[in-house]
């Protein structure tokens, strides 16, 4: 019923008729426009992972602020709060954010079984804070080439409502309807959890499509990317399976870079991230990174 309500509201919006929900949305036309927001999913126990990302592909301090002002690229680690609000874990994150200023806190209780809810909270929060063309979700044990990511996303600008990521399994369809067995076993358009990007709609105000997805389509599956994929499929959002978002670690990403086909993201499939990323991400960055100047030379 929620999906039917969302689709009905979507049709109303596309036909130009306002809905009570969308009428309440704030006009975002006066917001600064950004190219993309990159949310790095992290946990309380992952301080070393965050520091390893800061030491490799994520610009720091003035460089990160310059990236926002000149390139329109926002990067934040994304985390909720502990079950004991204001406890030692929350205070540690607050102290870390005061030092680096690169953490986005969500109104969400952290927990492995709550990743779908966290994904929903991230996209909803990011859309409310930044008016961007793309919203990206990536894990904190993945290596990313930011300029290559930007160039990849820019190629899809003229396509309406796209969701970009690596598909691990095909959709299971039965007589034109979703096979509920596949839903329960996690086979519905399962996207690799390393990195994926959602595009702001080109033909209707994105705040409206956001409202449909995150206020109406609330059913969540165990895997957060299955949940997100199912929400978008229900609203006719186009999925683009781009394999450059799921390269392997060296030698795979290194060979591709040498051939002039730099990877967007690199990780180990067996770990759904770089295995032992704290120890290995610097080596991946050295061998597969696009170079420190690439982002400043890139034109999106």
From TrEMBL:
Keywords on record: Glycosyltransferase, Golgi apparatus, Manganese, Membrane, Signal-anchor, Transferase, Transmembrane, Transmembrane helix
Membrane topology: Single-pass type II membrane protein
Renumbered residue ranges of the record's region Disordered: 1-27
Chief localisation class: Golgi
Cofactor(s) essential for the protein: Mn(2+)
Compartments it resides in: Golgi apparatus membrane
Pathway in which the depicted protein is active: Protein modification; protein glycosylation
Polar residues compositional bias, start-end: 12-22
GO cellular component: Golgi membrane
GO MF annotations in UniProt: galactosyltransferase activity
First-tier enzyme category under EC: transferase
EC assignment: 2.4.1.-
Top-level division of the source organism's lineage: Eukaryota
PANTHER family the record matches: BETA-1,3-GALACTOSYLTRANSFERASE 2-RELATED, BETA-1,3-N-ACETYLGLUCOSAMINYLTRANSFERASE
Similarity section: Belongs to the glycosyltransferase 31 family.
Protein name in UniProt: Hexosyltransferase
Native organism: Sesamum radiatum (Black benniseed)
């Amino acid at each position: 019923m929620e999906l039917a309500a969302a689709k009905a509201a979507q049709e109303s919006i596309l036909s130009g008729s306002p809905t009570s929900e969308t009428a309440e949305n704030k006009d975002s036309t006066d917001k600064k426009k950004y190219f993309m927001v990159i949310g790095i999913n992290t946990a309380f126990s992952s301080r070393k992972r965050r520091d390893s990302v800061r030491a490799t592909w994520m610009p720091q301090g003035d460089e990160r602020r310059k990236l926002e002002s000149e390139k329109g690229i926002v990067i934040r680690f994304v985390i909720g709060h502990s079950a004991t609000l204001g406890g030692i874990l929350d205070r540690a994150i607050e102290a870390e954010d005061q030092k680096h200023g690169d953490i986005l806190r969500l109104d969400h209780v952290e927990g492995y079984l709550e990743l779908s809810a966290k994904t929903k909270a991230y996209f909803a929060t990011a859309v409310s804070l930044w008016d961007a063309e793309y919203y990206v979700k990536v894990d904190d044990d993945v290596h990313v080439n930011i300029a290559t990511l930007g160039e990849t996303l820019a190629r899809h600008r003229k396509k309406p409502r796209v969701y970009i990521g690596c598909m691990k399994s095909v959709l299971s369809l039965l007589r034109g309807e979703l096979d509920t067995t596949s839903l329960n076993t996690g086979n519905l358009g399962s996207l690799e959890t390393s990195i994926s990007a959602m595009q702001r709609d080109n033909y209707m105000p994105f705040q409206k499509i956001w409202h449909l997805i995150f206020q109406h389509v609330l059913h969540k599956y165990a895997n957060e990317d299955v949940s997100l994929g199912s929400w978008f499929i229900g609203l006719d959002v186009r999925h683009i399976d781009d394999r450059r978002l799921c390269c392997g670690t060296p030698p795979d990403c290194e060979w591709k870079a040498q051939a002039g086909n730099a990877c967007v993201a690199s990780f180990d499939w067996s770990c759904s991230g770089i295995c032992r990323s704290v120890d290995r991400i610097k080596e991946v960055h050295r061998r597969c990174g696009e170079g420190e100047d690439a982002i400043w030379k890139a034109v999106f």
